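Figure S4 source data
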Amino acid sequence: MTMGRVAALGERSRVTGLALAGAVVLVADDAQAVRRVWHSLPDGIDLVILTPAAAEALRSAPAMPGGRRPLTAVMPP
């Protein structure tokens, strides 16, 4: 069984600590940056932990290329 990787996407102050747990940290401090990072997620990411602001930014984002859609979880506010 192969395990996918976990990424954390959002504001620096909310995601950097997740690197200690092995997450790939993807800092994006505004909605435009969130959408840009989302559409260029590294291969092998199966779960993306989103900050509430990042989740809101992705609410209206177009679909990812190739129909790829990793599982997401949103941090509590």
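Figure S5 source data
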Amino acid sequence: MITAASPGSGAADRPSFLRGVRTAFTAPAALIYLGGFLALFVWALTTTLTAEDASFAMIWPSLAALPLSFLPVPGPVEHPVLVFLPMFLGAVVNAGVIGWCHRVLRTTR
């Protein structure tokens, strides 16, 4: 009887899902993207809070986290953090995709 962990089945050679997610988010390209997004977000937030005319400053982090950054938040937006939730969700998903592409392109077969 062949089980998933038996030798010769190839299941032990395949990486687990969590290992794949960890390697995707620790890839240098994903970390550079997340660092750039965070720097852009901090710049836009400080510009919005301190400058007199910074009405379009928050559009740049939103554009950096496309396409998920423009998802509407369901229900009434009672807390300002809910406005930034789709932006951070988009950045995390984009970093995962970038890291996955980096991992796939770097593997040797």
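The mean pLDDT is 82. The radius of gyration is 19 Å.
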